[in-house]
Amino acid sequence: MLTDVPLKSLRPKDKVYKVADRDGMYVRVMPSGAISFRLDYRINGRRETIYLGRYGRDGISLAKARELCLDARRAVREGRSPALEK
């Protein structure tokens, strides 16, 4: 499970990479250094991904991303696609 300290210490690499958090949420680190929160889920037999937001001063916090993740997982349990609703 991630905290703010390891998130702030993530450094860009030559290729995009992912770091898992919990409940299916992960962060994607771009070569530019941008860090974004995402959630992969399955609905109706299809794999979908929802973008929850960008981390940092101009984006959302880890706590807010986890709230959005829980909301999205709730929608999936109810049979709704959070990516389509967004």
CA-atom Rg in angstroms: 13 Å
Distance between the termini: 26 Å
Helix content: 25-40%
Q: Biggest β-sheet: count, sense, barrel? A: 4 strands, antiparallel
Q: What count of domains describes the coordinates?
A: 1
Fold-level CATH name: Double Stranded RNA Binding Domain
Which shape, going by the Cα principal axes?
globular
Enumerate the strands of the largest sheet in spatial order, edge to edge or round the barrel.
1-2-3-4
Kindly describe this structure.
The structure is a single chain. The protein is of the alpha+beta class. It has a single domain (4-85), classed as 2-Layer Sandwich (Double Stranded RNA Binding Domain). It has 3 helices and 4 strands. It has helices at residues 4-8, 62-77, 82-85; strands at 17-20, 25-29, 35-43, 46-54. The chain has a 4-stranded antiparallel beta sheet with strand order 1-2-3-4. Strand 3 (35-43) and strand 4 form a beta hairpin. The mean pLDDT is 93. Keywords: DNA integration.
